């Protein structure tokens, strides 16, 4: 009797034999193929060096194979469905299949100097850095203010007599233009070595985003069961208890936390299982516990026995309004990223309001803005179908303008919360934009959550609030490192020496509440 393998090989064409040989040489897959969702078609295995071959009756043509392997990405869940054309779709709101993109870079070929990068966008970025960034060598005069508490380092002192010079030399280890010449790079190599590894990591992460590969880490988890508690000790326990697909690569973890840090930072503070508490080292103050307990009572309502019928009707609390002031990049995040905040509170409701003059950044496809009418006086863009329990509005204006008109009045500590991501309250270039807004925020008595790039950035913001508002505010959460900060570092193209990660630190404050008045204050004789 002829062996089965030889019998199968005799009925297969040379093309299929090459495919099977290549698959046999690959390492085993660590998870089922049905979960390795991809919106791109499988890559072609044919080569122009081989002439087309005739397939046997046991081998379907390549076009049929590619049609069968086309699948879509799930935006909100991971439940398999079958669409009308026979392709497999995961989730209830899966996106339509997109045309395939060629793989530009392999996972083991991500490091390239920005100037010689195979990606045009990275080459343009190198030209921008050369045009605007200055050499940090101490022989040059200083061109920037210190960005940290330690201002004695040679890279920031700039006590030289030479005129400032733009960067032109790319470090061979990190591939980013950092000095004006190779001589200055060699002389200041010890100072550059402090951030060289981080710059190389940024370089590879940016190339990875543009490599054309499929990103399974962006396949987010669906709604959370009420019976399953979420562990917010760190990123690993959070992703595991939220039933995300396993992320075993550090680079993939950095990419996914870069987006999730925004909704999860808010959720980690407002959730009843928050890692921040009033115990020693928990960073939460007694006043903070009072404010957050009010919001948690609304976001975690007790079961009322309601149902779908008339007898099951019960009064419901209005949605919690989260005002994200000075919104920039966070307003353009994919909506399935913000839906992760709604999944943390199965019975809570949210209304996210992005406010700021740059709140429509990177959203050019939504222009022109709605006209300002009597029913929509500020031309707000309302997205009321993001999720059954979430609504998103975007207003391109300053908050103090809206506050003076009473657009969102009244404010309730049980239903309102303010968030500011990297506002730069104490930064010399942006503090004047907040001088009129912050005193109005204190009048609402609602909690205000603020994030910062570094500890120095947060301390500078707190000092500015103390100087501007005096003692008219209570600290709700002490400043410190954010448990759910972004694990990916970002580069400032205007200054390659300035690296930071999103939402590194977080703190919170609120307008001071006076529960009683003295006899002298009310004028009692």
Structure, described:
- With 525 residues, this protein is α/β, with parallel strands linked by helices.
- Helix content is 30%, strand content 14%.
- The protein contains 16 helices and 14 strands.
- An eight-stranded mixed beta sheet has the order 7-8-6-5-9-10-14-11, with helices on both faces.
- A hairpin with a 2-residue loop joins strand 12 (489-492) and strand 13 (495-501).
- Helix 9 (250-270) crosses helix 11.
- The chain is globular, with a radius of gyration of 28 Å.
- Residues 1-12, 20-98 and 149-157 have low confidence and may be disordered.
H/E element order: HHHEEHHEEHHHHHEHEEEHEHHEHEEEEH
Number of helical runs?
16
Biggest sheet strand order reads 7-8-6-5-9-10-14-11
Biggest sheet descriptor: 8 strands, mixed
| Strand elements, count | 14
Residue share in helix: 25-40%
**What overall form do the CA principal axes indicate?**
globular
Structural class: alpha/beta
Low-confidence runs: 1-12, 20-98, 149-157
End-to-end separation in angstroms reads 115 Å
Give the overall average pLDDT: 81
CA-atom Rg in angstroms:
28 Å
> What fraction of residues sit in β-strands?
5-15%
């Amino acid at each position: 009797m002829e062996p089965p393998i030889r019998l199968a090989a005799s009925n297969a064409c040379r093309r299929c034999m090459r495919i099977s040989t290549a698959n046999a040489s690959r390492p085993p897959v660590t998870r089922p193929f049905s979960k390795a969702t991809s919106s791109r078609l499988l890559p072609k295995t044919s080569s122009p060096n081989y002439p087309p071959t005739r397939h046997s009756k046991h081998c379907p043509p390549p076009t049929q194979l590619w049609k069968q392997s086309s699948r879509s990405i799930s935006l909100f869940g991971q439940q398999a469905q079958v669409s009308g054309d026979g392709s497999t779709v995961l989730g209830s709101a899966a996106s339509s299949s997109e045309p395939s993109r060629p793989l530009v870079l392999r996972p083991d070929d991500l490091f390239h100097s920005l100037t010689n990068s195979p990606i045009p966008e990275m080459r343009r970025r190198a030209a921008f850095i050369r045009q605007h960034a200055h050499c940090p060598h101490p022989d040059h005069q200083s061109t920037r203010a210190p960005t940290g508490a330690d201002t004695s380092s040679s890279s920031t002192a700039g006590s030289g007599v030479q005129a400032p010079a733009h960067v032109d030399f790319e470090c061979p280890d990190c591939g980013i233009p950092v000095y004006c010449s190779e001589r200055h790079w060699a002389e200041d190599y010890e100072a550059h070595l402090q951030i060289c590894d981080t710059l190389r990591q940024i370089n590879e992460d940016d190339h990875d985003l543009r490599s054309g590969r499929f990103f399974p880490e962006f396949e987010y988890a669906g709604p959370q069961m009420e019976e399953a508690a979420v562990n917010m000790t760190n990123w690993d326990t959070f992703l595991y208890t939220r039933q995300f697909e396993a992320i075993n690569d550090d680079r993939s973890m950095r990419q996914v936390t870069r987006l999730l840090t925004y909704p999860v930072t808010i959720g980690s503070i407002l959730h009843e299982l928050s890692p921040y508490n009033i115990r020693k080292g928990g960073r939460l103050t007694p006043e903070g516990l009072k404010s957050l307990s009010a919001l948690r009572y609304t976001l975690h309502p007790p079961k009322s026995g309601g149902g779908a019928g008339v007898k099951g009707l019960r009064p419901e609390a209005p949605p919690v309004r989260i005002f994200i002031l000075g919104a920039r990049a966070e307003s353009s995040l994919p909506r399935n990223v913000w839906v992760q905040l709604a999944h943390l509170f199965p019975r809570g409701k949210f209304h996210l309001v992005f406010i700021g003059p740059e709140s429509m950044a990177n959203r050019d496809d939504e222009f022109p803005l709605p006209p300002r009418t009597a029913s929509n006086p500020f031309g707000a863009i309302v997205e009321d179908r993001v999720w059954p329990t979430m609504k998103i509005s975007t207003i391109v204006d300053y908050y103090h303008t809206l506050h003076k008109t009473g657009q969102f009045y009244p404010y309730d500590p049980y239903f309102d919360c303010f968030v500011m991501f990297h506002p730069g309250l104490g930064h010399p270039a942006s503090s004047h934009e907040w001088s009129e807004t912050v005193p109005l925020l204190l009048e609402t008595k609602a909690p205000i959550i603020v994030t910062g790039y570094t500890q120095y950035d947060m301390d500078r913001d707190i000092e500015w609030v103390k100087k501007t508002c005096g003692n008219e505010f209570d600290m709700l959460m002490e400043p410190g490192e954010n448990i759910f900060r972004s694990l990916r570092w970002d580069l400032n193209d205007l200054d390659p020496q300035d690296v930071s990660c999103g939402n590194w630190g977080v703190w919170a404050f609120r307008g001071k509440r006076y529960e009683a008045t003295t006899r002298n204050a009310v004028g009692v004789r």
